[in-house]
Amino acid sequence: MASLTTRLGPLRLKNPVLTASGTFGYGQELEPLVDLSRLGGVVCKTVTRHPRAGNAPPRTCETAAGMLNAIGLQNVGIERFVDEKLPYLRRFDVPLIVNVAGESVEDFAFLTRALSAESGIAAIELNISCPNVAHGLDFATDPTLTEEVVAHARAATHLPIIAKLSPNVTDITLIARAAEAGGAHALSLVNTFVGMAVDVRTRRPRLSNTTGGLSGPAIKPLALRAVYRCARAVQIPIIGIGGIMNAQDALEFLIAGANAVQIGTATFVQPRAALDVISGIEDYLEANSIGDVTQLVGSLVTDSGK
Amino acid sequence: MQQTTALIRGRDEVARGHYRLKLLQADVAAAARAGQFAHVLPRRADVYDPMLRRAFSILAVEGDTFDILFRVEGRGTAELSRRRTGEELDIVAPLGRPFAAVPQRAVLVGGGVGVPPLAMLAAQTRREDGRHRAENIEQNTLRQTNSSHDLIAFVGARSKEELLCLEMFADLQVAARVATDDGSAGLHGRVTELLEAHLAAQAGEKHPTIYACGPLPMLRAVAATCARYNAPCQVSLEENMPCGIGVCNGCVVRAAQAGNDYELYKRICVDGPVMWTHELDWQHAATTRG
Question: Is A302 among the domain residues?
């Protein structure tokens, strides 16, 4: 059997496949359909300092090979998360990565510090790239702010810090370098691409928020390029995200330089998508006599060597 | 709830652009309750457009099979309408909160493709009636009073050809009155006018419970009418539903009273699709289909 063990800085995973934030709830809803303990890790729905109602409906709309969403970070807030959601998530034999979002550097530091006091959390993912809330993108579109927020979160915890970046920037490698300079142990990329859709019958936007984040197979080539470029720009590990529907897609990200992947929108369609990706990667390694998944990472073959 | 495959055992175009599929899946057929839905993948597994599953109310269960009925509205339903008997569908079912137990007297109000879950509710209620009768006979009860539920259905559609499930209601001995937008059958008008007249005629009596499913403007009118007559009412809601199992928070509707911010929106897929009208904020109720 090939080894699937993966390291993201200090974080050790039994395989490189995680669930993406906002697509797996707090694990509860999927437990009847998915054996959570087989996953490399679970990244739970974004937690904020205060409870958030989220945006008015309609919040989602399907587009060609993808979907737009503008949920607006609906969540119960850190207090209820710790009291009600965390005890449940802790029971599973799977590394739990808590995704947090704030409106200020202080918010991120506060959330990181508060979660560090709790047991059963393997890492913190900083959502500095939500396109659907006011100021959600302020951090990940500015290298100085990115470095500052990562550094403050890093100083507030002993846990590994993962920065989740936005693709809605001119040059994502600048932001990736800034997150690295701030002390991030790993990067998650990418969050959704800002997009929109119009109902021509009513001439209204299909989302109440007018714009939303595009996810699904439609964004995979774009996400793959972002991972490829960042993998060459930074030394820290990268978690590839964007339209991964099957093992083939996940393998593309690993070969392009991702150390691990997150499965998001695919879970909406196939609750067991992440598990299928794990077994598909295993099959590929066996078939190609590759003993260790880490050998695959960044193994892209090019004639130019670029 | 489970993810499984279901074999298409039958396919009928019951009205222009309306298809009824009979699906073989014993566990789902045994577990399904009226108001619950199946989340159906309308495409092959390796083609990603259209990408998401589509939610369909369960219309009927019979032995090891259950039926869904849909109108071709977009790419997903168009794709599904091309599937043939003998093919398999990838489904997650049964999902969602079903209709509450039907009291002695109930009125079913359905519009367009909102009628199927109400036909299922009528059938389920009649099966209960049958069980009670059998028990009474077994216990040699001499009471000859008819203990069957008092059910009436108001069925609306754009035109006569699109009136759904009338045969089912007739077979179940549920009196059905119809309304069409174009006047081609029954009342030339809205199905909600039938409800209004029915409740007005019963003023003074204890009101029946109303069960409704249909387009949002219809449900809004039903909710307003029921509030006026103080009649309890459950509606089944529809919305774009990416996951169907409560993880994406996409298919929400605004709640009437939110104790806290994070409770302002209810998820139609798991908190519904059936909800009491008093649970919802009708002022702000807006869905994609409305």
Answer: no
Interface contact flag, B53 A269, Cβ < 8 Å: yes
| CA distance to A276, B20, B44, B70, B76, per residue, from B79 (Å) | 25, 14, 10, 12, 5
Instruction: Show which of B95, B124, B151 is a domain's final residue.
Output: B95
User: CATH number, domain at A289?
Assistant: 3.20.20.70
Residue in B closest to A78 by C-alpha? B262
pTM (2 decimals)? 0.94
Q: Give me the domain span that covers residue A231.
A: 6-295
User: Distance between CA B122 and CA B252 in Å, rounded?
Assistant: 27
Q: How far is A101 from chain B (nearest CA, A)?
A: 16
In this predicted structure, which of A106-110, B53-57, B139-143 has the lowest mean pLDDT?
B139-143
Interchain proximity B51–A62, CB inside 8 Å: yes
Active site residue A130: yes
Mutate to test the interface with A, among B73, B79, B262, B282 (most CBs of A within 10 A): B262
Do B121 and B256 share a domain, yes or no?
yes
Closest CA to B287 of B209, B225, B220, B204: B220
What is the pLDDT at residue B290? 43
**Domain annotation covers residue B31:** yes
- Expressed in angstroms, the distance from the first to the final Cα of chain A is 32
Give the chain B residue whose CA is nearest to the CA of A55.
B265
Report yes or no on B286 lying in a domain. Answer: no
User: Using the 8-state DSSP alphabet, how is residue A259 labeled?
Assistant: S
**Residue A23 pLDDT exceeds 80:** yes
Q: What is the pLDDT of residues A240-266, one digit of tens each?
A: 999 999 999 999 999 999 999 999 999
Task: Look at residue A233 and tell me if it is in a domain.
Answer: yes
From the list A44, A61, A130, A230, the catalytic residue is A130
Q: Are residues B76 and B110 in the same domain?
A: no
Number of structural domains in chain A: 1
Report CB contact under 8 Å: A32, B258.
no
All residues at 6 or more sequence positions from A49 whose CB lies less than 8 Å from its CB, including other chains: A77, A78, A102, A107, A110, A111
**Closest residue of B to A61, CA-based?**
B240
Residues A265, B51: C-beta atoms closer than 8 Å = yes
Nearest-angstrom CA–CA distance, A242 and A221:
8
CA-based nearest residue to A283, from A13, A15, A6: A15
Interval B2-54: pLDDT, tens: 899 999 999 999 999 999 999 999 999 999 999 999 999 998 888 899 999 99
Give yes or no: residues B275 and B132 share one domain.
Answer: yes
Tell me what pLDDT residue B44 has: 86
Are residues B264 and A271, on separate chains, in Cβ contact within 8 Å? Answer: no
Q: Do B1 and A208 touch (CB under 8 A)?
A: no
Q: Provide the pLDDT for residue A304.
A: 77
Q: Name the minimum distance, in Å, from the CA of A99 to any CA of chain B.
A: 15
Q: How many domains is chain B built from?
A: 2
**What gap in Å lies between CA A196 and CA A105, rounded to an integer?**
29
The minimum CA-CA distance between B92 and chain A, rounded to whole Å, is 9
The string of pLDDT tens digits covering residues A103-158 is 999 999 999 999 999 999 999 999 998 877 777 778 989 999 999 999 999 999 99
Q: Establish if A97 belongs to a structural domain.
A: yes
Same domain, B125 and B251: yes
- From A61, A67, A71, select the one nearest A133 (Cα to Cα): A71
Q: Last residue of a domain, which of B43, B61, B95?
A: B95
Taking any CB pair shorter than 8 Å as contact, residues of chain A touching chain B are: 22-25, 29-30, 32-33, 45, 50-54, 56-62, 64-67, 69, 71, 74-77, 80, 206, 208, 216-217, 245-246, 265, 267-272
